[in-house]
Amino acid sequence: SSPFHFLSFTHRGWAVPSYHYRVMAEINRRKGLAKIDIQSKNASIGVELDGKGKVKKIQPSSSFLGILFTNDIIISVNDKPVQTTADFFNNVKKNVPGKINVSYERDHQYTTSCKKLDAIHPNTELYEVELAWRSGGTRIGMLIHRDFEGHVVVAVVEDGGAASSYVKPGDHLLRVNKIDVNDREKARTLIMKSINDEKKVSITIERAVAQKSLMIQPSVIIDPPTADKSITQDPPKSVTAKVEEKAPTPKEADKSLAMTPPQKSEAF
């Protein structure tokens, strides 16, 4: 019933020699330290581990949502070793309210790429983002909803999710694997199927870009150099003409603003 959807997908594994898989995993696994300041002793923890430190599930209400991810391997909480859900829960509860430092290992099992396309609307930029997974695991981390104009809009992008490299809140999701989408359920279904079947997905996003602000600078009369400063000379006609030009009205300024080329957004 909620108008929002978090895109959190895992998909089936695929057969590769164990040696190659181990090497790939070691190359992609990175240690990290998640820092969070929990202000309430009643804050939801909502992190489930598999008994060996690996995160199995994170509840939507969890204070660690967007900070920890499924398949992260938790090493410690505030320097206390963690392996089970009870370990994690008890170590967090001992330190709240207060600062929680979670040491973890994360396997970055995906690659991302982005290609800029020709814009189809004024003052916008168009991008095709491709996400590809080596095997199951990392979530996309993208919250989508449908606005009143019928657009599928990215509402939230989680830090550390696969989409965070290129997708930004406010982007319009136009196509999934080059198929037009104007409904969040259709977009979600297409993305899930593509990841499960192909271990990759391509999404086309449109981003609004800001226009340059209009600045009207006053004209200045500059006296021409003279040998005798006591002699006053009339300024050149070209300069006088500048002074006599009528300042643009607010309506004319608006027209100028509309014709100003859009300012480029930050390059990916």
Question: What tags apply to this protein structure?
Answer:
268 residues; 4-stranded antiparallel β-sheet; 5 helices; alpha+beta; disordered C terminus; 31% strand; 5-stranded antiparallel β-sheet
Fold and architecture overview:
With 268 residues, the chain is α+β, with helices and mostly antiparallel strands. It has helices spanning 18-28, 85-93, 184-198, 237-244, 250-259, and strands spanning 4-7, 29-38, 47-49, 55-58, 73-77, 80-81, 98-107, 110-117, 124-133, 142-146, 152-157, 172-176, 179-180, 200-208. The strands form four sheets. The protein has a five-stranded antiparallel β-sheet with strand order 8-9-14-12-13. The protein has a four-stranded antiparallel β-sheet with strand order 2-7-5-6. The chain has a three-stranded antiparallel β-sheet with strand order 1-10-11, covered by helices on one side. A hairpin with a 6-residue loop joins strand 8 (110-117) and strand 9 (124-133). It is elongated. It starts with a strand and ends in a 9-residue tail after the last helix.
